[in-house]
Every structure is written in C-alpha cells, then in structure tokens.
Design goal:
Structural class: alpha/beta
Oligomer: single chain
Number of helices: 14
Shape: globular
Distance between the termini: 18 Å
Helix content: 25-40%
Length: about 375
C-alpha cells in the first residue's frame, strides 16, 4: 500500500497512441479497424507487434474479441481482458494493465477498439435489452434514458435547452480545429434548438455521431517508456463505479457514479479538479457533459448548465473540454471511451496542432457505459507531474 491508496501512481505510462478510420471506412470490419489502430499505436511507440504480451479489447459484436484480435495480429499474449462495461471499458482496461505491468505480469499492454457502425449498419446499433418494467413502454434505448436524465436535471435545477446546446456548439468549435473530426461545419445554438426532436428534451444535435473508427494505446512501465520514441504520458490515478444497469434503477437521475470514480482518481493521483488543464468526457449526449462536470467537481451540482455557458468549455475558454470535438462532433463508433485517452495523450505531448492547449500537463479522461450505468475516470500527466 502506498500513499495513493495502493494505485501504482506514475509507474506506468502510455507510450503510443493512435486512431484510424474516423468517419466512414467502407470495406473495413471492426476487427480490421482495431488492428490498424493497434499497428499505428505500436509504430508511434517504436515497438513491434511481437512485443505485445497483454491485450485488452472489446469489439462491439464479438464477445471473444480478445482471442480474435490476438489471432489477427499473430500474437500470443500472457493475458487478455475483454471486460465489457460499455464505453467506460477502456478506462478500466488501463487500470488492469497498470497493475499487471507493475506486478511484472507483462511488459507491453495493447488496448484497442474498432467499429464500422456507420458503414456497416448506418445507424445507432445497440444490444441493449431493457427490463420488463422498461420494455412495456417501448423506449428507444439508450437515447430515452439520457432524455430522462436531461428532463430531470431541467426540472430540479432549471437547466435550459439552450445550455444543452452550448455543449454541442463548444464541441463543434473544437472539431473545426481538428482535421480528423467527422463534423466540422458551423453550428449555432439556434440550429441546435430548431433541430429534429428525437426524445424530449433532446434533439438530434444533442446526440452523438454515428461513425466508423478505431483507437489504440500502448502501455509500458515508466522506465521503459522513457527510452521509447515519444514522450511518455503517465497514468497517475484512476477510479470506477457502477450504480445500476437499467435507467429505471438509477438511484438519482441527476447524480452519476462519476462522483465516486472521480474521487478515487483524484486521491490516487494526488490532485484536485482545479489543477486539471484539459478534460476529455464521454459526451454521447449533451446532458453527459453537464452531469460529469458537476460530478467530477468542476462545478457544484445543478450549476452545470450555467457553467458551460459563455463558451467556457470551448476553444479559448478557461476549461478546455473535449478538445478533439468529442463524440458529438469528432467520432462515435458505438463506444467512445478510448478516444478520450488518445486525445489526452496528443494534448499532453503538445502535438495537437491548431487545437493545442498551451502548457497542458494534467488531463482528466472520463468514460461512461450503459445508460449512465458505469463510470470510469483516468488522470494522466506529463513527466513534471510525477
């Protein structure tokens, strides 16, 4: 046990990170996309496929994807993990990879995801099966669940649709600085409000994209990472929490498990919300960003709607949020969590180009799974944060 609650703070690092096939990638299956992102991440780290001895993956329609990707890449890992908690999965994978690396159980851990959701199906695909209590009302899940959370937040705290729209507009402004982002055309609050309503109070502009895409990161022990191609980005702290599966069982529609996962991550990292330079949140819907900013301590409960106003989280604002454009404007191929980590790495290396946040040293990444069901928080830092 150490001073950070047993978490191996700064003992492991992300040595390579990459995306592949964002937007539309016709002809690629999910496994192809994941493999291409994996190869790119390994090249980024200056490592070979044969160096990989731990594999963490969760492909959308393959519940044996740890075995599938190992065979596809031609590796025989010492350990695999196919944990599925939805979009938060990959921010839990980093924890198990860090523990395994610190224990000497492996030397190079690859975490990967890919999906051809847009060109393969052309619509939001969900394997979600609600409880009998929910199915009787035939909700369009998971969308309806997030609409319930948004409606309740509006009722409890006076949050307005215009404030939800501010989240979408901020994401689009970041995307306009990112040549890889899928949606880069201008977007206004008025256009968000006038967009087609899909589940009151959420319009289509409050909802994430449906794209293809893949992401991968490579983790090693800190001492080895320092000898590789790129400046290492260290995993300083992490936490996770599960509160329910069905939205009908969520204890409070306005409070997520991010309260607990964030508290764990801050304690392990030894930092506070005020020290975080950039925030990468799982913004499947605009209400997510508001809820997570509150629950992760960036503003008080109920203040999230007002907090995101006046371009506070947009380029040039005091708290850069989702600097790649997020799931709302950059990429969302079914599960977005791993993309938060890749973007944080790019920012902490100082290689984000036009969207670079000057002097960024500490990043918070947050993943969400199910219908606000599973929450996972990672805090990453540069060498000087150790």
């Amino acid at each position: 046990m150490n001073a950070h609650g047993g978490f191996p703070r700064g003992q492991t690092a992300i040595a390579g990170a990459a995306t592949f096939g964002i937007g539309e990638s016709p002809g690629f299956e999910a496994i192809d996309l994941a493999a291409q992102a994996s190869l790119a991440a390994l090249r980024d780290a200056g490592l070979a496929v044969g160096d990989v001895d731990a594999l963490f993956v969760g492909l959308p329609q393959d519940y044996l994807s740890g075995l599938t990707l190992a065979e596809y890449l031609g590796v025989r890992p010492k350990l695999t993990d196919n944990n599925r908690t939805g979009g938060s999965s990959f921010l839990t994978h980093t924890v198990w990879a860090a523990l395994a690396l610190s224990a000497g159980m492996c030397d190079v851990a690859l975490i990967a995801y890919g999906s051809n959701q847009r060109t393969g199906a052309g619509r939001l695909v969900s394997s979600w099966r609600g409880s009998p209590f929910e199915e009787a009302y035939q909700p369009a899940m998971p969308l309806a669940g997030y609409a319930l959370a948004a409606a309740r937040h509006m009722h409890e705290y006076g949050t307005m649709r215009e404030q939800l729209a501010e989240v979408a507009v901020a994401a689009r402004r970041w995307a306009q600085l990112n040549p890889e982002a899928f949606k880069r055309d201008p977007l206004t609050v008025g256009e968000c409000l006038d967009a087609r309503m899909v589940a009151e109070p959420l319009t289509v502009r409050d909802c994430c994209l449906v794209t293809d895409g893949a992401a991968a990161i490579v983790m090693t022990r800190a001492d080895r990472a320092r000898d590789l191609e790129r400046p290492p980005v260290f995993l300083l702290g992490a936490g996770s929490a599960v509160t329910h599966k069905e939205i009908a069982q969520m204890p409070d529609l306005t409070v997520t498990g991010a309260v607990k996962s964030g508290r764990q991550a801050y304690k392990a990292a030894g930092v506070t919300p005020s020290e975080i330079d950039i925030v990468q949140l799982y913004d499947a819907f605009t209400i997510n960003t508001i809820l997570f900013l509150e629950d992760l301590g960036f503003c008080s409960k109920g203040e999230g709607g007002r907090f995101v106003g006046e371009s506070r989280i947009a380029p040039g604002g005091p708290l850069p949020v989702n600097t790649n454009g997020g799931g709302l404007s950059c990429v969302h191929p079914g599960m977005y969590g791993l993309f938060t980590l890749v973007e944080a790495v790019v920012q902490l290396r100082g290689s984000a180009g036009a969207r670079q946040v000057e002097g960024a040293k500490l990043a918070l990444c947050h993943g969400n799974g199910g219908v606000l069901s599973s929450q996972a928080t990672n805090i990453l830092g540069t060498e000087e944060t150790l």
